[in-house]
């Protein structure tokens, strides 16, 4: 072994590399810095390309998506049956809009992250089959997003860029004071507890520590070529490349390395075809998350023609940048009233109760159903029940779940 090789494998150098790694994790530097830069971020797997080539819009839509009941063609089903769901944490800061890919999520959850600014958890599975696309902007994890993601079978792909953590000055490379993060909002602690992180081999895909180029990158000209976007609004994921990486390097396709299918214990909601009221009872839904934060006020307007709800945010149509700025719409809008606590620590984190039960409103078909929600444990499926205690059936298509503080008023 030559002197250089001995130097690289020396104990001091290995310790130095470890400390640098922890520092990069705690300071927000991307894992992509250490990724091997050689692959095309827009590449698709051969199998996906072949199946996608057989997709014809004229084909009958006979195959129901297990996530939201929407009907797709058989070639589209063949694609999703080789994969598992992506659950992606997506920011909604006003300076990051318009976002990319949100219109193709099967289910979207919205909740305040901090300071009255909301964030999304998008569940991508069936809607990600027809074509490759970008998901942006990926942001940091919160405990309640992990709790929702846990409902999507065994080892759903949890995509995020860092998260609430307590890597403090008592740890190697820690840069903040101990106890700065409240235990109940420590996302990294929960991810480790449930076994998702597991270095580069788990289903946790963290842009700050274990996942990066070519599937997840900082795209500095995301909204306009030649104009640099601030760092925090740049993390962008490429769907096909993401699936390629986790399948080839983590053995997380439809089945994992042990041969267990992701949906072995998955509990699907109930779905039905459109049945719009001839005279809609609710044509506009509006609410705020926090007072004085009008940029995050939400309005859903009902389109009788399409039997869908169109979303506006901060007084402007809420659009998908990647898909020609089409306005986001949903077949179902759910108001899940949650107890709000916080800020619970010096970093301003909020805590929302998503395990337990509470009141709910479900808007669909131009009507509203008053009921409640119930989730018995972290991995249990959230159930939405009507006033009689029967499970509510969703209209086939996208479902938006708005986690609104229980004290807030919903206008409709």
From TrEMBL:
Q: Where is the DUF3048 domain?
A: 81-168, 295-401
What Gene3D superfamilies does the annotation carry?
Answer: YerB-like (3.50.90.10)
| InterPro entries according to UniProt | DUF3048_C, DUF3048_N, YerB-like_sf
- Domain of life here? Bacteria
Q: Which Pfam families match?
A: DUF3048, DUF3048_C
User: What is the protein's name according to its record?
Assistant: Lipoprotein YerB
Q: Which organism is it from?
A: Candidatus Woesebacteria bacterium RIFCSPLOWO2_01_FULL_37_19
């Amino acid at each position: 072994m030559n002197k250089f090789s001995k130097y690289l494998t020396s104990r001091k150098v290995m310790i130095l590399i470890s400390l640098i790694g922890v520092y990069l994790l705690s300071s927000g530097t991307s894992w992509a810095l250490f990724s091997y830069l050689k692959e095309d971020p827009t590449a698709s797997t051969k199998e996906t390309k072949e199946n996608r080539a057989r997709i014809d819009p004229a084909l009958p839509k006979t195959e129901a998506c297990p996530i939201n009941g929407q009907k797709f063609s058989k070639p589209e089903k063949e694609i999703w049956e080789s994969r598992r769901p992506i659950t992606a944490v997506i920011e909604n800061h006003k300076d990051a809009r318009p976002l990319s890919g949100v219109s193709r999520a099967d289910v979207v959850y919205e909740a305040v992250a901090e300071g009255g600014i909301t964030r999304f958890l998008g569940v991508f599975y069936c809607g990600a089959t027809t074509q490759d696309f970008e998901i942006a902007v990926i942001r940091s994890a919160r405990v309640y997003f992990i709790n929702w993601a846990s409902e999507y079978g065994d080892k759903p792909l949890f995509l995020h860029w860092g998260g609430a953590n307590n890597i403090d000055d008592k740890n190697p490379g820690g840069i903040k004071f101990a106890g700065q993060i409240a235990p109940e909002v420590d996302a990294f602690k929960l991810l480790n507890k449930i076994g998702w992180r597991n270095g580069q081999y788990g289903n946790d895909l963290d842009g700050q520590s274990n996942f990066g180029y070519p599937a997840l990158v900082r795209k500095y000209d995301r909204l306009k070529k030649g104009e640099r976007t601030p760092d925090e609004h740049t993390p962008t994921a490429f769907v096909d490349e993401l699936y390629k990486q986790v399948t080839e390097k983590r053995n997380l396709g439809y089945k994992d390395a042990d041969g267990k299918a992701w949906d072995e214990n998955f509990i699907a909601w109930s779905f039905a075809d459109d049945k719009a009221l001839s005279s809609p009872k609710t044509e506009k839904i509006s609410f705020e998350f926090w007072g004085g934060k009008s940029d995050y006020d939400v309005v859903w307007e009902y389109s009788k023609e399409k039997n869908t709800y169109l979303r506006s945010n901060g007084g402007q149509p809420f659009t998908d940048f990647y898909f020609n700025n089409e306005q986001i719409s949903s077949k179902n809008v759910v108001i899940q009233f949650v107890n709000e606590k916080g800020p619970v620590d010096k970093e301003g984190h909020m805590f929302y109760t998503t395990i337990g039960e509470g009141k709910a409103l479900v808007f669909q078909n131009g009507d509203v159903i008053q009921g409640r929600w119930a989730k018995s444990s972290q991995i249990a499926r959230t159930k939405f029940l009507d006033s009689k205690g029967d499970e509510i059936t969703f209209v086939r298509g996208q479902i938006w779940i708005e986690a609104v503080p229980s004290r807030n008023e919903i206008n409709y």
